TrEMBL record:
Residues of the N-acetyltransferase domain: 190-322
Residue stretches spanning the membrane: none
Annotated protein name in UniProt: GNAT family N-acetyltransferase
InterPro entries: Acyl_CoA_acyltransferase, GNAT_dom
Pfam families for the chain: Acetyltransf_1
Highest taxon, organism lineage: Bacteria
Length: 322
């Protein structure tokens, strides 16, 4: 039997998560982190959160979310997770949980289901081969998981594979050819450095040029409040960014993204921004960095040049409802 969310199931769902989801690399949940990720999240919807019961015992948990202010939010619902106990990982049970999620999406007028990195319910996961170094968000469904195989059979189309990449920062240095590239860019009127309100202007215009609401909100707030952000500027006007530069309590370097306005591409600014970002993280004692990027994204070569390696792959998936 599948029922909608009730707080009475919380501890049993946490126990299920810590038994099953961790097998796919997700970080364990506590009452505090469960509340932060799920029930206290502004996008939490008890009618889009489900529990599979067998003889009144919790054997499955599924959660989705919607929001018109999210990317694709007017047409899409996001699948956050579907977790099943060992003996209940059947196509029938996966389909049952998927059906109730999709039905709720359609009730709310959504036309498609998405497994996508814009999901605001962030699921942290451990980076393989490390002492529990972690990334703050899963950008899709792990390709080695049973859920991935099921979603493919259920009609979800893989739109991209996201490569999760990792670098320990203790030995990071900027290569000489990148330093040379910086000198060339400087001769062309470009600088790449930390944002300074007295030297730089045009942050809002730059962010509007990317048409990315998350960047507009986060980078705009950081530059306004003095949180370090690496920027590229042309004669003082900001035309690109990488950051913010924030060391998390777990030792990871957190950053929201990197971008250069199209009209200023071709000067090597993307790679300069990224290497300067790594340098800025190392300078504040950051232990490691992790990021994800599409497997076909040319920027992957920049990350590999900096020493990053791919440690895990996730799938971005979509199904359009009839």
């Amino acid at each position: 039997m599948i029922v909608t969310w009730n707080q009475q199931y919380r501890q049993a769902v946490i126990d299920l998560w810590n038994e099953q989801a961790v097998k796919d690399g997700y970080k364990e949940l506590t009452e505090e982190t469960f509340e932060r990720i799920f029930t206290a999240n502004p996008y939490f919807d008890r009618d889009n959160t489900f529990v599979l019961l067998d003889q009144n015992e919790v054997k499955g948990f599924a959660c989705g979310c919607t929001g018109d202010d999210l990317p694709l939010g007017e047409v899409a619902g996001y699948i956050t997770c579907i977790i099943l106990a060992d003996r209940f990982q059947t196509d029938q049970n996966y389909q049952g949980m998927l059906d109730v999620l999709e039905y709720r999406f359609q009730q709310l007028g959504k036309k498609q289901g998405e497994v996508l990195f814009f999901n605001p319910m962030l699921l942290p996961w451990y980076i393989p081969g490390t002492p529990k170094h972690e990334h703050n968000n899963a950008p899709g469904v792990p390709i080695e998981s049973k859920l991935y195989a099921f979603l493919l059979e259920a009609g979800y189309v893989e739109r991209a594979k996201e490569c999760a990449m990792y670098l320990k920062l203790d030995g990071f240095i900027i290569p000489e050819d990148v330093r040379t590239k910086e000198l060339k860019a400087s001769a062309e009127g470009y600088t790449v450095e930390l944002f300074d309100t007295e030297k730089h202007n045009g942050v809002k215009e730059m962010l509007n040029g990317f048409n990315n609401l998350l960047w507009q909100r986060e980078i705009g707030q950081c530059t306004a409040e003095g949180v370090p952000v690496v920027i590229a500027a042309y004669k003082g006007k900001v035309i690109g960014f990488a950051g913010p530069v924030i060391r998390q309590d777990n030792g990871r370097g957190y950053f929201a993204g990197i971008g250069v306005l199209p009209e200023h591409e071709g000067h090597g600014l993307g790679s300069l921004l990224f290497f300067k970002l790594c340098e800025a993280f190392r300078s504040i004692g950051t232990d490691y960095m992790s990021l994800y990027t599409g497997s076909t994204n040319p920027a992957i070569r920049i990350y590999e040049k900096a020493g990053f390696t791919t440690v895990k792959q996730f799938s971005v998936m979509r199904r359009e409802f009839v």
